[in-house]
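Two proteins follow. First one:
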Amino acid sequence: MIRQPVPRKGTKDRIKYDLLTSPKGATVDEINHAVGHKAWSYINDTKRLAQRCGGTPHWTDGGGGERRFWITRP
């Protein structure tokens, strides 16, 4: 089995990856706080990291800081 690449430790992508692959995922506000951004959505980041790491991206409907994103891995 080939291990899928994960972002390097210490990078903003790794911080996002760790949050997105946690059991509850993360809200926009939680990700913004962790990486110092002021984004209104993380759909593209979630899709990109999921594709890079062999996972499936998910997010809740709606908007605002409480919108939740997560990645499931096989």
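Second one, unrelated to the first:
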Amino acid sequence: MARRYRGPRLTRHRDLVTIMVMKAARTMKASELQTKCLAVMDTVARTGDSVILTKRGKPVAKICPITQPQPSVFGFMKGRIEILGDIISPIDVEWDAEK
């Protein structure tokens, strides 16, 4: 099973041109998957590459790894900080910036 490299792919986003290198997914016959199912799943989980299953030469399914969403940086301190006093009203101290 040889992988094919299709070359760089150009995507135009406003004024920025980005070159994205797309990996060609590995293909496998459905009958071959029946004998190597667990090994294929382990390989997909370990490498992150997808496998396209074919039946009579036509693609019918795709096995791809599940990606975990990255936690957001917004709100990561929620519930850990306590505000003491009034932080909205102005203070009666003259700042150096006002001089």
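SUMMARY FIELD: The two ends are 75 Å apart (CA to CA). The chain has one helix and five strands.
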